[in-house]
Write a structure and sequence with these properties.
The protein is α/β, with parallel strands linked by helices. It contains five helices and five strands, in the order αβαβαβααββ. It is globular, with a radius of gyration of 17 Å.
Amino acid sequence: MEWCREMKEQKLEEVCSKYITQLTESIEAQRKYKKKPPIIMLSGGVDSMILGAIAKTVYGEVISLTVAGKNTPDIQVARKTAYHLGIENIIIQVSYNEIMKGLESAKGRNIKNVFSLLFYLMFQSAFKKYPVKHFDLLQGDGADSLLGSTSSF
């Protein structure tokens, strides 16, 4: 029975290694600013936590951003997740009114769905508070499809 358990563990390690390799290759193929590590969009959820752990392993020192509404539980979960991952976490709080003020600027953009619109509006407001340029942002959205998603700003 011992050999059976060892065989299962080896296969799990092989599967995880293959997943990490595929995810890293996909991220690298999509990245625009490769001279510096990407920034991780950290919500505290499972997808962003796993992506954060992989990014920490692959890139070393990484920074995570949490963009959330004011006084939402996501902030505490993201802080705790960042602490356990050993990565810096920058919290940017965005209000409903700030998001609504940016709605007009979304017109004419290539925004295909409501999630993308909300993502655009939240980050537009967030980057007015925390101005950063020329970086790749990794997010767990789409991680169920194995590849996650990468945006460049």
